[in-house]
């Protein structure tokens, strides 16, 4: 009987390297693939990026694949990454929203595009080094379960995978802690054993989001405008709405004698609303672009724990549909900085119910 073929996305990091090794140990016919998603930056910038986008990632992944004695390829996904991640990132900021490019990359590039291309070459599955687990529930549906390493859990960024994608995906790293993964890497002599985790957004290595957007729009970003309070009183001048996000306190460039925070961004009037810390808290949010995972769809009200950003611990709330693709989430206690453009992900225990994009 032929081995099942599995294409493993290899970023050059320790997690995906160990994922490939684990799958080979489990008897799969493993093929290593690095997704070429960087654009036309100078080689120096690509090298500095390291992470999952830089040229150094290719060299690290290639050497790991050679050591594991598995085939290795670089696949070009530049067009998909440009459209679904970078262009989306810029468009959302111009609308006064705060996008999550990693979620878009997972959905449209790492799964939709990589999975299709992998199936086209005869693979049975794709695999990644994400800290998450795939389980089948009593109702027959596939869902994500939080990883064994709670501190590294990445289910938040994967909530919008489809049933088909889950059925053709393996995430072997999700059963282990980061320390265990690094221990395995050292035991088998992987050169990536001590490689640090990639941080921040891979295509903005200097972390200057506004500068990146300005370059991509050839300087056609929203101009300076007014900081205002909730009543519309002008408090001062801001640098342009792409410089700000809800909940922000640092880097505002305005002194009012007391700490102030961004409570709202109004692209239509080019205003950034400032308020006190208490003004940043809210109890209700609405979300659309829904994807349900543990259930076919939401019927009636459901009690869940909702995470409103990757670093959020989650808070109990009640969700119910208000339209076919719009859900209302009412928290038991106010939560800080409900940010339009970010994902809200619903959990019951360790299982992902689904999620959407905050309006």
Structure summarized in a few sentences:
This protein has 359 residues and is α/β, with parallel strands linked by helices. It has helices at 14-25, 43-49, 55-68, 78-94, 101-120, 163-167, 178-187, 209-216, and strands spanning 5-9, 29-36, 72-76, 125-127, 132-136, 142-146, 169-170, 225-228, 234-238, 261-266, 271-275, 281-292, 302-307, 315-323, 326-336, 343-348, 351-358. Helix 1 (14-25) packs parallel to helix 3 and helix 4 runs antiparallel to helix 5.
Task: Describe what you observe in this structure.
The chain has 359 residues and is α/β, with parallel strands linked by helices. Helix content is 26%, strand content 29%. The protein has helices spanning 14-25, 43-49, 55-68, 78-94, 101-120, 163-167, 178-187, 209-216, and strands at residues 5-9, 29-36, 72-76, 125-127, 132-136, 142-146, 169-170, 225-228, 234-238, 261-266, 271-275, 281-292, 302-307, 315-323, 326-336, 343-348, 351-358. Strands 12-15-14-13-16-17 form a 6-stranded antiparallel β-barrel. Helix 1 (14-25) packs parallel to helix 3 (55-68) and helix 4 packs antiparallel against helix 5 (101-120).
* Major sheet: 6 strands, antiparallel, barrel
Q: State the end-to-end CA separation.
A: 51 Å
Order of helices and strands: EHEHHEHHEEEHEHHEEEEEEEEEE
What is the oligomeric state here? single chain
Give the overall form: globular
- Average pLDDT confidence is 92
Helix content: 25-40%
| Class per helix and strand makeup | alpha/beta
**Strand numbers in spatial order across the main sheet:** 12-15-14-13-16-17
Content of β-strand = 25-35%
Say how many strands there are.
17
Q: In terms of per-residue confidence, which ranges show pLDDT below 50 for 5 or more consecutive residues?
A: 42-51
| Rg for CA atoms | 22 Å
Enumerate how many helices there are, as a single number.
8
